[in-house]
Amino acid sequence: MEAVADTLIDAATPVAAARAPESSWRDSAAGYLFLAPWLIGFFGLTLGPALVSLYLSFTDYDLLSNPRWVGAANYVRIATSDPKFSAAMHVTFLYVALAVPFKLTFALLVATILNRGLRGLPLYRAIFYLPSLIGASVAISVLWRQLFAGDGLLNQALKLVGIHGPSWISNPDTALYTLVALSVWQFGSPMIIFLAGLRQIPKDVYEAAEIDGASRSQQFWRITLPLLTPVVFFNVVVQTIDAFKAFTPAFIISGGTGGPIDATLFYTLYLYQEAFAYFRMGYASALAWVLVVIIAAFTALSFLSSRYWVHYDG
Question: Which residue range or ranges hold the ABC transmembrane type-1 domain (predicted)?
């Protein structure tokens, strides 16, 4: 009987071995089938267009004729003979330098207040998070333009106290600051992340500090902020990248011109003008890749510097 059983097992082994690859292939096929929407989106809508854009950045292309290879001419022009590029870079870096610190500071302040255990905390979180959801929309940008216009709501309120305010969006000295204010108003997203980070700090650390006589200010600077640095680092990177990519508010408030006198000419807005107003697609592609390099360089420097100021557990 044992000999017969061994014979049957030996006979079945090749059949099982032949079926194993087929079963494995079916399992893999099912996985790839579920991944197909993401793979199609990544290769068809992200990687593919990015590679095409990289090729176009070395060409002269106007959408109407075939791309003409010009080598690094677009990049040479960016670096040497484009005053608009310099103006857009100045406006964008100034916007990032102002909007990100103010936004994160205000978000941390609100998160610290909410962390004290207010009643109706979920409602407050929803209310404060709402501007982050709708702040980048066209409707809010239009509303912001009306708010800071010469006869807008802000100047109407200032008139009540005898102050005659300027047309904030038409004045090159103040136009950019209206966009900074709009960015700070959208503090809900980093605020939620800060609040989650604050909730992870053990309460017994604060209790021990109170026993040692530490004030609220000392607790914040020596306990809260050091333990919150990983969250601060995350918010700084994400919000800075978003600030570099800001487009809709500047486009709507300036009417797509970047005015007055290029005061709101964001880098993305200048890129849009080159691509869709002047149909210089090759040059616009070069501008886009320069922005990619700038963002990548900032991100790399952020990670390199994080070892000196970001404190992780252990």
Answer: 89-302
